[in-house]
Amino acid sequence: MQFLFVLNQEYPAVAYARQAEVTLDDILISDQLALRRSSGSRLKSEISALHELAQELVRTPKAIMDRLVELSLTLCDAESGGISLYEASDGEPVFRWHALKGQFAPFTGRTIPRHFSPCGVVVDQQKPILVKQPERYYPYLALEDAPISEGLWAPLVGLEGAAVGTLWIMTHDPDHHFTQDDCDTLLRLAAFGSVGLALNQVSIEKDDLLARQDLMMREINHRVSNSLQLANSMLRLQERRAAGDEAKQELRTAADRLVSIGLIHNRLYKAGDMSAIKIGPYLEDLCVDLTGSGNGRFSLAALEVKVTAPETLALPPDMVTKLGLIVNELVTNSFKYATGSSHCQIGIA
Asked: Which of 78, 205, 252, 313 has its CA 20 to 30 A from that of 190?
């Protein structure tokens, strides 16, 4: 199966050669819908379909378009269908095909022109249309082995009340004709689908925003960590070069404080919560780092720090910063004044 007129990924490269003297009015048969009525009621089936769409919207919002088209085909006994969404581009505005089913399924993602398509007519008129053999006027819709008997398009309305696309179905059976009931069903599904698409778009935009935010946070974390590490290394280097014991101690204290601040930063980044830090894990990390640093600076055979804190206790970052600096001073001073002992054990509760 192939298009008689090739569709590009971004825009259909077609020669708009229609059948001789065929006009849009020749294919539009919307007025016939009022003369066609289904024999049975499909209310129960529609309610079930809408309920299913609501569940799908909660479970997997991104799958709403596929399910919307599938239910449209089932309820209206159609063979092909899809969703066309308007895209404003730098060039010619287009409608992009999404969730295509049936004979058109291989062409999901392709585009059709805004100003030369059934979708454009629907958006302009803000109402559904029924079309007979649309490929006579829109040649890019022609399929080699599946001519379209009828096509039914319904508008998808955005949050601001304007049509942003269409939900459409087609039949390739010359003996099958869409009815007013089919049109009403498609309109109701399109109304629900419009809400679903709007929520889905919000979800996609939120995911994109979170992804960009995550990338930005990783970059910030990397730069801040590198800057703190560089500053710490410079202070340690100055400590080794300093002439007096007092200067060495001041530089050492400043470097230890940078370690404490760096641990707070890393704890915030790893936790993903900028409002509070669990104090127990933070103090344990801080003391492990201070113990490792103390083993190289104090003449002690063994250093041990035990932290006892409620697992759920969390404090704001500014309070944790102050507490961390206090603990940093107490622990390093304990190491310093325990110099000469065989073992230094510190408890923090």
From this structure: 205
